[in-house]
Protein: Ketoreductase (KR) domain-containing protein
Amino acid sequence: MPLNFLGAVLTEGTSIVPYWKQVKTITPYVLGASAIKYWASGGANKWERNLHGKVYIVTGSTSQGMGTSAILDLARRGAQLILLTRNLDEWTIDWCNDIREQSGNELIYLEECDLSDLLDVRNFATTWLNNSPPRRLDGILVMSGEMEPCLFSKRKSSIDGLELQIATNFAGVFHLLDLMKPSFKAQPPDRDVRIIVTTCLWQSMGRIDVEDPLWQNRKFDGSLKYFATSKLQLSLCMLELQRRLMRSINEEKKGKDTNTLSEHGANVSVTLVQPGIMRSNSLRRIISNGSIILLIFLYCIILYPLLWLFTKSGRRGAENIIYAVMTPELEPVNRTDLEKVKYIVDCEESKLIRKEFQDEELQKHLYDKTASDILELEKAMAKKRPMKKKANYTDNSMKVDKDKVSKERASNTGSSKNSTNIKKTNVSTKGKNQINESNLSQNSSSVRKPKKRLNRRLLINSLTLN
Structure:
């Protein structure tokens, strides 16, 4: 049918085409819009790689867009995913079960780890590292991000007193990767370990304070500056992390095999990924400024046609993450400069423009100062926590003593058997209190039994994946 129609148009002319004038007028605009949409969508991953048996720790996976699309793609390829989530609520559990059903992959686990809480991050990393032999790890995918409304915003603080965006986007991610360095070094030389960290265009607006990288002493003057700075400083620290991983591994191997010294540590690579401007929760929050009225009228009704044309979907943005996982350019045999960090934009390698990315001395100073400030902050918070725990324990012990006294008074003429039962009851009560306190110290959990299956699951991982 189309061939007959085209043949008739060629022989008889365009006069036989219905509404030819309207079609002729609209066609250039349609072609132009299609070209813009194709350009705005960016590149797509074309590489394939066998991910069966590979283990990845993922942050920011629960975002409805890039995060969910990326882990769904990886899960369908057979990867085992350990998803760090801030809370283990019913929605998150249902979401995880849905991902398992869609991908047909049961090796997807939820672990509770709030990146804005430095103690939570340390507890997770300590639990992961506390195993012999070392657990298998093929990479960490950092897709998490916290962005607050820009206009008329107020400072939000984390549990450690840091500004929430600095705590989540910079301090928490830095702390996690810095603590996980022993796990990176412990992987065998033939294992391709990839650390993939997302950044954004806003980092070009960030400011660097080497003497106060966590901005603890800075007066709050707008959330956008904090967000941009958190992304910029994290990117700079990732460049230094790559160099430290290479040099530390080489120093450990020095003298053992001098002929292949340059190859040691080549299996660990750090990659920065800029997924582009997406129709994400962050963009909606910027446009609506946190107002549901502006979200409905300004974003959904007025601006959405333009946003659809000039921005990416979350699925298209996830192509950059998949590319960084799949591309053979990051394989040890294809890397020429082992200390260089790759910067991926639209599924292609790009260059970091700001001059700070060429200043290794600045990056080293920023890394050292950030690590020391986080350590000092952890010590300061540790002094406050035992006081609260001790007060709670005193209250519990007082309740147990009151129960004991009341029971003894009630059994004035009781037999020795009854008194024995009272003692057993008191002992069991104290035991329950101790168990409850120990359960509160656990930080990772399974989907169905959040507080009891962390160590068992990680033990299973260590036995089956190495």
In short: The first strand starts at residue 55 and ends at 59.
